[in-house]
Each structure stands twice: as C-alpha cells, then as structure tokens.
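Entry 14. Ran structure prediction on the chain below.
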Amino acid sequence: MKKFQYIFILLAMTVVVSCKKELEEKPYGFLSTTNFYKTEADANAALIYAYSILPDLDYYSRNFIVLTELPTEDVASAAGKSADEQLLDNNTVTATNGVLAPAYQFPYVGINRANLVIKYVPAITTGITDSAKNEILGEAYTLRALHYFNLVRLFGGVPLHLDPVDDISQTNLPKSTMQVVYGQIISDLTKAAGMMDENVRLGRVNKVGAWGLLSKVYLTLASAKATGSPGYDWVTSADDMYANAKQYAGLVVNSQTVYGLDPSLTNIYDVNSKFGPEHIFDASVDRSGADEGQYSKLPLFFYPNLNFRLPDGVFVPGGFNEFLTEPGIYNSFDPNDKRKTQLIISTIHDVGDNGGNAGTTMVLSITDAQYRPFSNKFNDSGWTAGQQTSANTPILRFSDVLLIYAEACGPTNDGYAAVNRIRARAGLGNLPPSLSVTDFRNAVIQERSWELCFEGNRLFDLRRSHQMESVLENVYGKTITGDPYYFPIPQAEVNQNPNLNK
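Output, structure tokens:
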C-alpha cells in the first residue's frame, strides 16, 4: 500500500493550486466539490489531502521546530543564518518576523482541508459503511483540533473557522477568545475519540491519539490556571482540569495495549521502527518522495556541515549546521542519562575529505562556536546521499502522554510510578520521595525537557507553567523582549484582515 503522504489527490479532485500557491491566492486553500465526495475512495482521498499538510517544510518538517525550539534553552541559531531565526533565538519577536507567517498560515490550510471532510463526507451514502465514515470524520476532527491547539498556544485567540473557506472574503473573521477556541478543541477531540478505532495506520491518528491530545489540552489548561500563566484566567478550576488530564492520559497508559514505552531509546527514532510502540502520531515522510514534505530535510538542520560517520557507522553526507545545541540543555543532563549519551552525538568519525584523516574521531565541544554535539533524534539509518531523509517528526509519543499522566496525578503512587518508568529507561534512579505537589510537578516538567528535547514541546511547557522568565532568564541567562507567552499574529495577516485588531 502506498503511504498516504505521497498521494496529493490530483485524481478525481480539482485541487486549485499547490500548497505554497494556495497561500498566495487562496490563503486557506480550497477545492471543487461539484463532482467529488461521492464515494468512500473520494472521502479517503480528501482525508489524505488533509494529512499531507503536516510534514510540509513550513510545518512539522522544519518551521514548527524552529519556532518552538529556538526561543528555549534547547538550540541556538548558528551565526550567519536567518536574521529572523536569530531574533527568535533571542526572544525578540515582532509581527514582521518571517518565521511566524507559515506558523499561522499552514494550520489554517490544514483546518480548511479538515473542514471539507467534516462538511461533505457525511452526505456520502453509496458504498461506505458507517464505521468507515466515522473513522474518516474522527480523524478529520482530530486534525482540526491539533491545528487549533497549535495556533492558540502560539498566538492566543485566533479566528475560528468551522466551515470550508472557498472565497477570500470569508477569511476576515475576528479573533475568537482563547476560551472559545479551547472549547472547540475539546469538543472536536471528544467527538473524534468516540468515532475512531485503535488500529494503527502509519502517519494517521486513531482513538488513542485523540485521548492523548485531549490529555495534553487539559494539562495545558490545568497548569496554566494553577501557575497564573497569562491568558488563562477564564479556566474555572485547575483541579478539575488536572482530573480530566489524568482521565484521558490514563486511558492511554492503562486502557490500551497498542502503544507503550520502547525499551530502546535509539529504536524510537530509527526510521525502520516507525511502527514502534512509542509512535502514537507522527508527521510521516519517506526519502523516496518526489517533493519536500514527502521527504524531510529536518536532520540536516542539526547535523554539522561536514561529511562524517555517526558512531554506529551511518554515513552523513553533510548537514546544514543550523541548530546548535545550547549549553543550557546539554549541561542540565545527568552525565549518565542515556538521553544524553545515546541521543546527543558528541563524537563523529572523519571520512577523510574534511582536511583530516579517514577514521579519525572528532570530539565535539558544547562551547564550540561552529561544531557542537547535536541531536540524533531525527535519524535516518538508511540515508546515504542527497538531502532526502525518512525522518518523521513526532507529534505525540507514548512517553509524552506518560509524563502528562504523571504530572496530572501529582505526587501519588501512580504519579511517581509513571515518571520513574521514564527515568529507569534513561538509566536514572527514582525521583526523591515525598515531594510537594508543586515540586513534583516542576520535576516532571524538568523530566519532559530531557525526554522531549528538540521535539517541539519545551516552549509550550514553559509557557503553560508560567516559567518563561524564571527558567530562560534567571537560570539560563537568555534575554526576553516583548511578550514571552504569545507571538504576535503576523503583520501581513493583520493587514489583510483588520478584524484581527479587534
């Protein structure tokens, strides 16, 4: 079976333009429905088209990682790279920063594609079972919720489109409040969880993924309310939100057998293990794809611009050296933590064409201005040449949900057991017993920084726990200029839609 991400639905569907041209002419993308949405094949094709936005270069295969990692203590932008990335790294972000534009636009492209499925698939009555229809709709609701969850955490209140947009005049909605946006996210995910099964489909989400995303949404509301994070005054009860997060994370942890902790950290990120137990939901790619978005260049942004071999012998034909590991995250690990020793590469082997001798070991220093230890999480063990890799971007991993469960449980037996499972796999001892509720939850958030580094989670964890200043400025000495909790909506969008100022 062809992987879903390779089929861009050019048959039996009139796609107006390619994704990037969509953004120029029809900001939210649209397609003709006159002769479409007649069969189950049409419904599946439309759903695949909705998924195809996720691994785009300007979404999960690069831009999302840039936006969520550079402001934190995880990575810095290398000297001489994009000025917008340098400003993002320094937490000096204005509405004209070029990294913001796709971060705002691409979720809306995905939302519109999901809205098309949600609107038109229910009317298909020929050759499709109710269970097949429900599965397709559940996945579309989950995709729409994911996009809005990204938007509201990045920008705060945003316009809420619940119907397909087929004309630019329909894009001028005012911003909805964060309360309304979160309410829609919860509604979509709750509905989706009741429509989908637990079958695993590469690059697609299922019932377990909806449970996991719901737990993450509720944890965001809980911790933001408990810590006084800006924008969440409307949340009525942190305790209720923690209880909801525990409930849905508990379904993932205790009520299904499809997913679990992979005993091997390196196996999680090997492209040959995409069906491994950790992978609840990924933006899926393959190096054999014809266009970027079908394959990924994300590993190259972490790799040095040298030809070298990794310690396991895999040849790397040169990277972009764009993301430099920061001393903040690197030095915060316990020296024996396997997440540091196995997933951050600190020694490479010269292949003889970098001015050195073939086979020579090159030790990378975290203080080096050019070549530093780098993340090996985006790893394609079969990559031999060119810039096309099969490295997926994780959207939701089992360990992420297990730590959500731990944080929501607090310092109970269940909470300690969950976080200590993560620590045991990393080769570490248990958390200290008898921590206070606040200290325990902060310890779990710190554990998340080690477990999920470079995967697009740290910024959101710092924002929801009201720790942007206390961690980034006070602990790691970074500078924050402007609002650390919400990026401004891109100026180009405000210029086109004056209602965004209301």
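The chain is about 40% helix and 5% strand. Will compare against last week's run tomorrow.
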